Structures are given as structure tokens and as C-alpha cells.
Model the fold of this input.
Amino acid sequence: IATAVLSYTDRQVLSLLVDPIRGELKISDAQVSLLLGTAFAVVYGIAGIPLGFLADRTSRRNLIFAGVLVWSAGTLGCGLAHTFGQLFSARIVVGLGEAVLSPAAISLIRDYFQPSRRGTAVGFFLSGIAMGIGAAILIGGGVLHAVELGVLAGTPLTTLPAWRLVLLLIGAPGLVWSLVILVIREPV
Done:
């Protein structure tokens, strides 16, 4: 569930930051829609098929580990982007990394749980996705509020605009969480 929440937070947080991003990068409404939709969704949708194929043939744990690293790096890249093209590319990376999670996680659930308990296990995983959607706004908004209140005052980070700090602070925990994924034992 925690990985699904992390995934959706990284996926959705950009929607909270549209106005400051638009202002700094001077991007149009059409470009915003490309960032929030196309850059993420097309890659996510297409990459899910070959990544599902890989989940059937390789270590799901390692795929999830790599996916968390990739989408977290993409979120950090969003925070460091200085042009529309850079931000668009970083969103593609987020979509690519996140496309790993569902096929690999559901495959792991299948091996970890008996048929009589799989529905419940998948339900918990899917509830993590639903919670992640809500948590993305709550977590992202909380981080944005904390940054605006000056929680990082006195650090070198205060020179960065709030929207960049939010993306960096949302992306960084995924790098640590990916190590937690390595604790998962790949079923025989």
C-alpha cells in the first residue's frame, strides 16, 4: 500500500503546482495539459505491456525497486527542470517508472497469497492506489504549505521556488523507499 501511495503522490503532485510552474517556465495551457496527461499517460499505458511481460519472466521485486528509483528520479528531474522540454521529459520518466508497479505487484500478490485470499490482497493493493490519489493532494499540499511557511529557512534550499522544493521533497523519499523494497523476498 505504501508504494502505491508513494507512486500516486509523485504522479499527482504536479497538478498542485501548475500556476507557479506556468509562471516561471512561461508555458501555455496546452503545454500544461501535455505535462499532466500525455507525457505521463501515454508512456505509462504503452510501457505497462512490456513491463508486464517482464514481470512474468524476471524478479518482480527488482522490477519494483527499479521502478521506484526511476519514477523518483523523474520527480526529482521535474523539480530541476528549467524548460518545458526538460519537464516533459522528466514526466515521461515518471510514467515509465510507475508503469512497473501494478503488473509486478499483482504478480507478486498472486504468488504470495492462496487463491482464497488473493481477492482481499489485491483489494488492499488497489485501495493503496485509491488512498494514493487522495494522499497525493494531502501530502503535496502539506509539503507546499510547509515550504511556504519557511520550514527550510536558513538552508541553501530556500533560494529555490516553492514548486521546485515540493517536487524535490516528494521525489527524494522514493530513493530511500526503494531500499525497503529490497527486503521483499521474491517467491520461488
Remarks:
- The chain has eight helices and no strands.
